[in-house]
Amino acid sequence: xxxxxxxxxxxxxxxxxxxxxxxxxxxxxxxxxxxxxxxxxxxxxxxxxxxxxxxxxxxxxxxxxxxxxxxxxxxxxxxxxxxxxxxxxxxxxxxxxxxxxxxxxxxxxxxxxxxxxxxxxxxxxxxxxxxxxxxxxxxxxxxxxxx
Length: 147
Prior knowledge:
By secondary structure, the chain is mainly α. The protein has one domain (about 5-145): Four Helix Bundle (Hemerythrin (Met), subunit A), CATH 1.20.120. About 85% of the residues lie in helices and about 0% in strands. Helix 1 runs antiparallel to helix 2 (about 40-75), helix 1 (about 5-35) runs antiparallel to helix 4 and helix 2 (about 40-75) packs antiparallel against helix 3. The chain is elongated.
């Protein structure tokens, strides 16, 4: 294995771990707090959340996706099956984020709705499961790349 591939594997694993941590934290702590915000402050809270979370999630999401895409396209020195599974999980999670979670956040930006929050929690739980798979694949790729 060359140094560049080892570096990419390490950065990919780190970005995937960061995304897993963020998604799990949001599921276990942050989203449930939405129901605790005072109704007269909820719109302001949701807008604040949407504006701030993007700057935390976007760099890790982009880094993870670019490297996963590179692994799918190049695959040199990698297990092709793991690279493809990891890339597929990323695409499904990306689609679930932008086609599922983002519209639900936009709906919540107009005001709190318990049903919408419950749907958001279900969507994010699926994202947690997908990201757990991504983390396992990234760890396996990194481990295999060091052999």
